[in-house]
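**Archive record**
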Amino acid sequence: MKRNMSEVTRTRHGRPVHHWRRDVVELAALFTAVAVADAVANLIGHGPDGPALLLISAAVLVATAAFHTWWARSHGHAPPGQGHAPPPSDTGARPRSPQRQAGPERQAPATGARPTLWRMRTTVRDEPGALAALCTALAEHLVDILSLQTHPLGTDTVDEFLLRAPGDLAAADLTRAVALAGGTGTWIERADTHDLVDAPTRVLGLATRTALDAAELPLALRQLLGRCTIRSLPSRPAGSGPVPDGVPVEGALEDTVMRLRAPEGGVITVERPYLPFTPTEFARARALVELDARLGPRVPRGHDVLTLPEGDDITVRRAGPEDLDAAKAMHERCTPHTLGLRYHGPVGDADRYLDHLLSPRFGRTLAIETDSGRIVGLGHLLWDGDETEVALIVEDAWQRRGLGGELLGRLVAMAVEAGCESVYAVTRSGNTGMVAAMRALDLPLDYQIEEGTLVITARLEATPVTSRLPYDSSRGRSVRD
């Protein structure tokens, strides 16, 4: 007699337990069928009523089969969704019901394509069901919503999504689905794992960096608002008006441009032509600027003590406006040739650049000073809109000793930490020292020469340089030529 696995209903001490009553009925039915068959054979062979008895025996066999079927259905396993649920597995989890779940039928995404992260922003009507329709459209394309921010605009709402979509879903297909669901003005770009941090955590991190270092404000604004161009304009001279460029204290928002009053009285202009700013973004940017203004000027005070091959110790530290006099004194000790290579103009005008260069509003400055406290080298990392410039000057008596390369390596490390894609240096074509320092970075370089001016651009996508910020401890190292 054949048995199947559906006959096993439970397990006791590791051994399957069968229905014994069902086995008895099956055996009785089998013996009854054999006895009836034997009786029919004898009667048909020895009596005149054989055909009638054959019909009776057939009817008995059909009745026996019907009884067996009824018994199996009444005492066997209940169908899915009826009777007792199947027992849990050895891990405590119940098997999934074979019934199809409610909702639209989905197909599993192709396993060959890796999921893609997208940042998407679209505008929908501020009414019940608008966001639900958008989310349903994304779900039909197997798009997972990782985060959502809303920017109210009166009758409309700008919804900003971080999405994880199937790798074979093109951006055009995604925006088309959003448009059919009611989204307008859709903007989309690739995202990375850094965007997985939720908005409040990211804003708090940017506020912390700004609180520690005044030079972080432009970088914090750029990371807060995405790809944008940030420019800092100095305040007007005394007597030219209390408000620079007509910007009110609370700032001004004009579609793709926002203007904020800088803490020192100037103006910070932020431009993002490809995507208008929302009032929510404007409020966040203004809050960061207000935090910077309340904390006042601040520069990290950490430093590194380095040992030159000749045995001299020097200190590398951040510099600020308070170092203006020491920087001017270094200019006085430099030759006109050195000043000309650095500033590309009349050497008598070199000092007037220092106010701008030493301000943390426009970038970061590193200074190298001797044991006596005299500055002998300056390195600048300058925020130039959406680009980043590096510039160096080393006093003549301290050149050819590796100081320029040390400063440049640290400036590039700062640029990497700030998320810059490249840095460029502007110098004269005959400045072999700057060219050698840039080549020593071991980074991809681009050269452009025009009328004796050389622009060297270093791409930082795969730079091996490790940041040494924030100089919160002293570490002895050797500077090599």
In short: Confidence is low (pLDDT under 50) at residues 1-18, 76-106, 237-243, 464-481. The first helix runs from residue 20 to 46. The radius of gyration is 40 Å.
